[in-house]
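Deliverable D4.2, example record:
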Amino acid sequence: MADGSGKAAPPIRPEFEHREVGAASFGEVERPLSAWERITNVTAVRRAFILVLLAAAWEGYARWLDNSLIFPTFSESIQALWSGFVDGPLLGRTLTTLQVLITGYACGLALAAVFTTIAVSTRFGTDLLSTLTAMFNPLPAIALLPLALLWFGLGVPSLVFVIIHSVLWAVALNTHTGFLSVSETLRMAGYNVGLTGVRYVMSILIPAAFPSILAGLKIGWAFAWRTLIAAELVFGVSARSGGLGWFIFENRNLLDTPNVFAGLLTVIIIGLIVENVVFRAIEARTVRRWGMQR
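Output generated by the structure prediction step:
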């Protein structure tokens, strides 16, 4: 449509009238949570509920099977667990195992830090870590136990050696992968403010790669725990005393199945405590606070 001058007239747009809508028509915009909703919003409560369901399923199946030699009830296993800690050797065996585990885990972390530092510093270090990881990471740690016994004898050093093997490669690989994933923007920011060497690693690389580092710590802990229990099942901790694995093995020979399950429950409980207390506290103070994890 054109006007008298031959130019196109602007389009005629219809007028619109917007009416205010009352807030009551939207329903509940904000309301206080009920007691049930507040309880179910707590992660610990939800996970405890899952554990209760598993314990109930265990109890029900064991009562239906009705054979304590093959599968004792949950209540019998808890009673054996209590008796083992109060009157039996379970507490001492647990402390022995934890002492060996912490020693091997700490040594594995220290060696992983050395290998990773070399890998991020030089090209040769990167090739060295990649080659060693490809060679030894697929090798089961328990397969090295006969050699460890030949080299170090029947005792704690042999178990520490296989724990170091199970921890070292998993932690080093995850840490190095995390360092490689750090963005170039962060790297250049660190160089621009004059960070080099250890300060550069501590201030830039480790915080940026900490989700991968934490994943490696969890994997290394799980590998170390499984390796130690498997080794103790066969050889014990030393010629004089044993840990949790040896406790399980002894009671299996005695056909005391409730005590076997008590030892297994001890392993499970320690794993739950480490995962939900230690590692969760580290997550809350690092990656969650930094906004790197939901």
